[in-house]
Amino acid sequence: MLPLSLGDWNHSLGHATGCYAAACNLPNMEAFVRFLCRLSWVSGLGLLPTLAQAQPGNPLRRLLRQDAVLASVLREAKAHRLQVLYTQINRDAQGQPHFRTYRLRVRPREYFYPASSIKLLTAMLALEKLRALSASIPELTPESAWRIDSAFAGQTRVLRDTSSASGRASLAQYLRKMLLVSDNDAYNRLYEFVGPKALNEGLRRHGLHHTVLRHRLSVGDQDPGARHTNPISIYTDTTLQRPVYVQPAAVFEGEWPRVRQRGQHIGKAYFQGNQRLEKPLDFSTKNTTSLPDLQWMLRAILFPEAIPAPQRLALDSADSSFLRRYLSLVPRASHYPRYSPTAYPDNYAKFLLAGGAPGSLPEGVQIFNKIGQAYGFLIDNAYIRNQEQHVEFLLSAVVYVNADEVLNDDQYEYDTVGLPFLRRLGEVVYAYELRRRPKQPR
Fold it and tell me: Model pTM?
């Protein structure tokens, strides 16, 4: 089987076409297949997982088989709905990153509940919207004060935010809370600001065709409430007398985007309140995504130059720096909002490499990530680096831990199976990176 190299997101379509021309001069099909792999990324047609999984140069299956903790989950990969996406980052003499991606059982059409992992997608689209508004309202910034009203059943108002230095709500403050400790209300406010129609249009614009955002989190949001968004006013004056932007209540009346995914009916039973229903839980009306979509988003924020120009985020350098800062900042380092290091240790919401019991991150390691945890699913989407050791890589994974196949019973093996697996996966890949890395400074 061919050793497929998919260091490809950093190529534009024009560059890929140039690769094809070069491939035509070779006497075999290898370069042509490589071109198809690159082109599939650029055009958003898919990941060619079957070919990639079989490549003999793929270290993932070997690494998992050699470790007892990982091997036990790998043996039951289908039951655990296991998917792993690992991207090596190699820099050239000019410091430019080049990517080589490996997959283990990555299946964009196999459903997993994304939980909080999709919050980063919403953060990106909210910042893009504010940046577009600031073109005609130059005084508008992420720190501008918000007031949120209610206009439909189940909606709630926001007049103040005591976690912020100003005592006011703002896009920046919601982003901080969402990225630092995965605050659900913060995500919900961004969902209301962008709106479901624009959220899903934005995802398609960036080539993310396996993701659909169709509800708020942790408030039982579903149709018709999920289609309705709150009125929002944004102010730049300290007295909050004259808003510079007013967004009225809105309703999305179109069709939700459809993504063909398998396995959206999960388990053998579930609880609805105190009632046990003896049938699978239907996830077809819930948020959905894929591991490649999640990792693309992280790469687009951290390595914007590696994204084809038409798909790049419409953010300025300050927006990108803000996202990078709060993706990696440990909660105790934040002053507004302030978090107790006891309740929010350094490894809070850092599943890969550091998950499990409260503790510190490994020495010298920074983790830029967004996790998800719900219904037995654990997801982590991370960029891990140690500048002293010249290590950097992207690692994304999902694992399902629900042995009794009953949902909403709070009997998930998060602590005994899921978190130990993700921590060990990060440790094993990190150790592999240390071994393969050139030791010269960059």
Answer: 0.86
